[in-house]
Amino acid sequence: MAKKIAIVTGGVTGIGRAIAKTLVEHAYTVMVCDIDEQRGEQLAQEFPGSLYFYHCNVAKEEEIKAVVERVYCEHGRIDALVNNAGIIRRRTSEEIKVSDWDEVFQVNVRGAFLFCKYVAPLMKQARRGKIVNISSIAGKMGDITSAPGYGPSKAALDGLTKTFARELAPYGITVNGVAPHAIETEMSAQWTPERRESIIKAIPLQRLGKPSEVAAAVAFLLSEGADFITGEIIDVNGGYLMD
Ligand SMILES: NC(=O)c1ccc[n+]([C@@H]2O[C@H](COP(=O)([O-])OP(=O)(O)OC[C@H]3O[C@@H](n4cnc5c(N)ncnc54)[C@H](O)[C@@H]3O)[C@@H](O)[C@H]2O)c1
Question: Does the residue 242 lie in any domain?
Fold first, then answer.
């Protein structure tokens, strides 16, 4: 039987890397789409025949369109799409440049929209497929680290998840989100030690999360066990927000 094909954006480091590795363990062939060419090629060498690196800037429509066409031409199917690429620009609302705010939306929202836009028709045709968008607790609560573009972009991503979930449900395709908080990655490494300590103190489970714990939630949403779940945003946050 042909192996399932998954696209993971921003899959070279952090949470995306953990998702890509977990999906390889779940017998997917994984296409990692990222701008970090050097580390992307290294990652592909770790998993020969199971993980491929594609240079793709999710802020660029033509690159997304080309990657989706290439993956489909080469493998004839796309079973799973994980929109994970995300950026944050930490400034107060007075300090942030409008161009930086726009860039956050371009990567975190428009990039996910475009991947869904180009992958959805292929999934519809197959009447099969699952999409997971990596959101953030900031989409539900606002951003706690002074990033005025980030929280709103993740709230928009949650809206996008629910909208595509409705549009694609008649075709048996599910679209869900995972909203992490305080996961140990390069993004969280930018925190000062004081901020890190105060963030941990506020988490009921009293620690940071692991990228593999976000990946496990994604793997569940992509599994058959989650066939009746769509339009849901699953929290992975150590109990920080219980909604
Ligand atoms: N780390 C956390 O605590 C945390 C919490 C909540 C949500 N998230 C979300 O999880 C996702 C992954 O975060 P992370 O902490 O692993 O981040 P990270 O910075 O470690 O990794 C982000 C990856 O995305 C890639 N990327 C950045 N811009 C890109 C672009 N334009 N096109 C393609 N790839 C691009 C980077 O090269 C990198 O591989 C993001 O969407 C983030 O918002 C993270």
Answer: no
107 lines ligand 1 (CB under 6 A): yes
In a domain, 54, yes or no: yes
pLDDT of residue 163: 98
**DSSP assignment string, the chain:** -PPEEEEEET-SSHHHHHHHHHHHHTTEEEEEEES-HHHHHHHHHHSTTTEEEEE--TT-HHHHHHHHHHHHHHHS---EEEE---------TTTS-HHHHHHHHIIIIIHHHHHHHHHHHHHHHHT--EEEEE--THHHH--SSS-TTHHHHHHHHHHHHHHHHHHHGGGT-EEEEEEE-SBSSTTGGGS-HHHHHHHHHTSTT-S-B-HHHHHHHHHHHTSGGGTT--S-EEEESTTS---
pTM above 0.85, yes or no: yes
What share of the chain in percent tops pLDDT 90? Answer: 93
**85 CB near ligand 1 (under 6 Å):** yes
> 16 CB under 6 A from ligand 1?
yes
pLDDT tens, position by position, 202-223: 999 999 999 999 999 999 999 9
Determine whether 150 is an active site residue. yes
Distance in Å, CA 178 to ligand 1 centroid: 13
CATH number of 150's domain: 3.40.50.720
13: CA distance to ligand 1 center in Å?
Answer: 8
Give per-residue pLDDT as tens, 22-59: 999 999 999 999 999 999 999 999 999 999 999 999 99
Q: Is residue 221 part of a domain?
A: yes
Range of the domain at 162: 4-236
Q: Domain count of the chain?
A: 1
160 located within any domain: yes
